[in-house]
Amino acid sequence: MCEMSLPETFVNGFHDEKEVRRMTYNPLGNTGINVSKISLGTGGFSYFYGDYDIDECKKTVHEAIKRGVNFIDTAAWYGHGESEKILGLCLEGIPRQAYYLGTKCCRYEKDPKCMFNFSAERTRKSINESLSRLKLDYVDIIQCHDIEFAPNLDIVINETLPTLQEICRSGKANHIGITGYPLSVLKECVEKSKVPIDTILTYCRSSMIDNTLDNYTEFFKSRKMGIIQAAVHAMGLLTNDGPQTWHPAVDHIKQVCSQAREYCKSENIELGKLALYHALQHQQAGDTILIGIKTRTLLNYNLDVLFNGLSPEEHEAYQEVKKILQKLPPQSHWENVELEQYKAKLSKSN
Known about the structure:
One of its GO terms (molecular function) is L-galactose dehydrogenase activity. 41% of the residues lie in helices and 13% in strands. It is of the alpha/beta class.
């Protein structure tokens, strides 16, 4: 979509038209949806990512949408429903036409025995719970969450996805998506599914330390699927604040990213801005870049990078950070780490 045109989500009298015209919108696969280049992740509207302020969350959501951000992502898993509940409060007073929203099912509780449930019965219950918390009649995308954790892929293909198709036919959702970290598993699911899958959401796979998505983009695009790329900041590794203690990356990755972080701090430059800039320059980074944002400060610096790029000082720092990160291979990831941890906890609890 042309950068200067107005998207179908534009609401006269609500949006800041000048800001909306600055935003870039891309087709999300074959869904008929045009999504803003930057979209709003709300995992931080819960204790998963530290403290948050409900009033600030609400102001952030309102400002983001008024300035042209038109896709919001949440999940039943984030804070075990907390994110959806807070987001429901934040959406009050915003026209439903003004945004698209995706949520997720199948991942729920902290207890490993109850964490995942891919059954049809639980999936049907989940969408009703999500809509109640969000105070909405429908979501635009319902996604099967972290499919690599399913007991086997067959249950996702033969039970979860047909149930999501049923949910879409009921009018409670419009499109079906799958999410996960291992791109090979997402690809296999798409290849084997008899239910058309409209979108994939992957994370940390098109960043300054991992370009794995490049190997899969052509496949997903050939299927006319929308690509939602989350966590280009590598879940906090590529920010000045650093990651949460639970981050699954191995120590070597954390150490090198810490060196980049300390360099940026010494130069009074935000590493997160450099990480987003890198993703924006990379054409394989997906139709929309999903960023966890819970304050207007974070919103403003991300939009500043999108609209204005980097300052000369930040450009210089960007080059230095790339040199530091060359200590890592271009596909530095933690695939299977969380899965093995989950299996170990599940085995112990049983």
